[in-house]
């Protein structure tokens, strides 16, 4: 072999093909030997041959035997640990030599064929996996001596990186498929540590423009394992999460929506599995509890993956993802029918919660300067419609999603606790002037937003977290999107919430009423200091100080704590404990705010969502307050009295409309009969009278609108000695000679 090696190294490139066949036969004989030393010797000779670059390819040379034999050596199970390690390392080096010799030569045997990849890739992964287990019992490589650093795992990783780095676009699939099969066969998805390491090696080794091919392979594998155990699917999803984050730095391309579509589909399947307790739809009570727990873990893994991948996307792609997820949320509307029955309601609720969780993950950290782009109409309508649902958890998610979108300067955490600070400068708020785009957004959507905040405050099932979210939302709107008009409307809104707690038409519990009082106090304390109107700040401070002395249960410091201190009697609250609309209107009107608008009590607008809401039965009387405001003058707006519509008025309107239709039908019958039976002279006289009446009306209109200028001849004196212009026809006017041509 030494002689052959020397001949090989001395051989010229032009004549190497004449010698190689004999050389490879000799190497094959050594590899077939049972003696480890001869196997290692043959491998070393093959590696030397592999490093020689040939000018002329060989069309008939085959490496099938060497791939099979080197792969077998990679799985060596020799009794002697040292010899086993040497044989495995020789096998890895041999595979590396085969790859180098064939990968760049299209006329050679195609090493990317599945028959070769199915041997090479699992052999490398086997050595990586084996050392993973050994490393847990041995010191880290940094602590090991220099000579011990070279081991099969490091060599296998280096070989795998080299293999993947040489893979062209069409070969990626054949290289990745054996990895997935190996992880399946050895149940390596559940610990997921090794699987994540493998795909990190893959993602960092392949060319960036091929990243989306790996993502597609993982997505297809997830679909293929949709009936596997939840722990297996969770492992695949977490690997997908790691791979997607790395791929996002390169080129993800058209796989963005495909990835989210697959994940959302798996989320819906998981919900079905959790409800039925089995993968085929049959109910199996014996394993339902275990599967529910596992499915919940899988669902959390999917939501985490959605969030981690979305955080790496540019703004325009994240906006598309947000709209895509929102379009999948089942809503009680005419265009999105929901499933009926108890099972259907459970499925709808779980789907809504999971998708809103996903949406919250995507919206976290989302910054868009233009709110019209961040919250387009079709998205905002669907999102706010979920804010009216009875489920408290769903409503909370909607509030948190809105907060994530509106908070563009990182002020959210500063309002996590509701309080009445005497000086808000300690919060160190980041405030920018409201942009023109924000002003346009609020003009278009403000009433819709106020309405949902108002209705959310009236919910009986609200808990402390809901009021904290409502406070954060009000505060962030005041900081991010507020001009003078928005500030006025927000103050009206909060005063209306105070009226809800005071009048209590909704029969709210004591805690909810105290919470609404406290919410109003905290917000008005904040907005008064933001507007910096001294009289407004003074009024707010006086009411808060009075509450501290006489009614601490109306302040957030006593309400929003672990053990709230409440009052059992909230009826007959004295006016000194309330924020007065007339007083606030007076002090803000003196500072240039629209006092006329401030005097108007806030009444939410009627929309189609009231008709689609399930909160009230058909037989109940629904009282709808319609507020129509005049838009003619921006300085002064006149309020049209609200019209109360009840069951009785609706019934009367229906009856009256029937009577009117009967009268109209009778009148038409009489007209037709008259024209059929009356004499011609009578019909002509009737039509002539109508024509003369029309002509007289036209003459009156012309006389009013087309009045000629006064006569140059002078003016005449009317009664009481006042001069009055005399209007004469144009053709009778006298013009000076200079005007005649």
UniProtKB/TrEMBL annotation:
Subunit-level organization: Component of a phosphatidylinositol 4-kinase (PI4K) complex, composed of PI4KA, EFR3 (EFR3A or EFR3B), TTC7 (TTC7A or TTC7B) and HYCC (HYCC1 or HYCC2).
Protein name stated in the entry: Protein EFR3 homolog B
Q: Which domain of life is it from?
A: Eukaryota
Which is an annotated Pfam family here? Answer: EFR3_ARM
Where would you say this protein principally sits, based on its record?
membrane
Q: Which InterPro entries match?
A: ARM-like, ARM-type_fold, EFR3-like_ARM, EFR3_Homologs
Statement: the UniProt record of this protein carries the keyword DNA damage: no
Q: Which UniProt keywords apply?
A: Cell membrane, Cytoplasm, Lipoprotein, Membrane, Palmitate, Phosphoprotein
**What exactly does this protein do?**
Component of a complex required to localize phosphatidylinositol 4-kinase (PI4K) to the plasma membrane. The complex acts as a regulator of phosphatidylinositol 4-phosphate (PtdIns(4)P) synthesis. In the complex, EFR3B probably acts as the membrane-anchoring component. Also involved in responsiveness to G-protein-coupled receptors; it is however unclear whether this role is direct or indirect.
Entry GO terms, CC: cytosol; plasma membrane
Locations listed in the record: Cell membrane; Cytoplasm, Cytosol
What is its membrane topology?
A: Lipid-anchor
- GO BP: protein localization to plasma membrane
**Native species:** Odobenus rosmarus divergens (Pacific walrus)
Q: State the family named in the UniProt similarity comment for this chain.
A: Belongs to the EFR3 family.
